[in-house]
Specification:
The radius of gyration is 46 Å and the shape is elongated. By secondary structure, it is mainly alpha-helical. It has 6 helices and 4 strands.
Length: about 200
């Protein structure tokens, strides 16, 4: 809920599972006890750019035992003397204030639980699984195409063998005398030689 001119969080619904709440660049000046009542498991709270002026305004946050990151950039409270020491004393559960811990060590860029990175990892793994399935399908298609090519090659070889047999028969016919060749052709066609018919008539 960034930069929506919020004056308070009094209308916030009860969100027991909420971990990270962004309230920066609004006009909130107090009433933070609502957060303890309605977001009891909050771990990250960003109140940067609001109207928080003194340390006591933050006291209700003591009731958020899991709160370990609080941002108050550009709030007037940050101008107070010993601001950081006072906040860490008031909220001992805090690990990071304005992006740094009590020893001025910078916080990591992101928190997997708060930012939902775990969900992104699951999604990426799902995509990889889908890619693997697509690869398997592609391999099956390629195998089928290769089998079809092999079948076509086998048919072509059989046709070639049949053509070879026909050619051999034609060559054998060419070696026969002309009369024998004609006689053989007539026999293949189921007809009788005219000379044989004349002989039959004479008989």
């Amino acid at each position: 809920m960034i930069n929506i001119n919020l004056l308070s969080v009094s209308n916030l619904p009860k969100l027991n599972k909420l971990r990270k709440l962004e309230l920066s660049d609004n006009r909130i000046s107090g009433g933070l006890e609502v957060l303890a009542e309605r977001t009891p498991n909050l771990t990250h709270l960003n109140l940067s750019g609001n109207k928080i002026k003194d340390i006591n305004t933050l006291e209700p946050l003591k009731k958020l035992p899991n709160l370990h990151s609080l941002d108050l950039f550009n709030c007037e409270v940050t101008m107070l003397i010993n601001y950081r020491e006072s906040v860490f004393t008031l909220l001992p559960q805090l690990t990071y204030l304005d992006g740094f811990d009590a020893d001025d060590q910078e916080a990591p860029d992101s928190d997997p639980e708060a930012d939902g990175d775990g969900l992104e990892d699951e999604y990426e793994n799902g995509e990889e699984d889908d890619d693997d399935e697509e690869d398997d399908l592609d391999e099956e298609v390629i195998d089928d195409e290769e089998d079809e090519d092999d079948d076509l090659e086998g048919e072509e070889e059989e046709d070639g063998e049949e053509d070879g047999e026909d050619d051999e028969e034609d060559e054998a016919d060419d070696d026969l005398p002309r009369g024998e060749k004609r006689k053989r052709n007539l026999e293949d066609e189921g007809e009788e030689d005219p000379e044989d018919e004349e002989d039959d008539e004479d008989d």
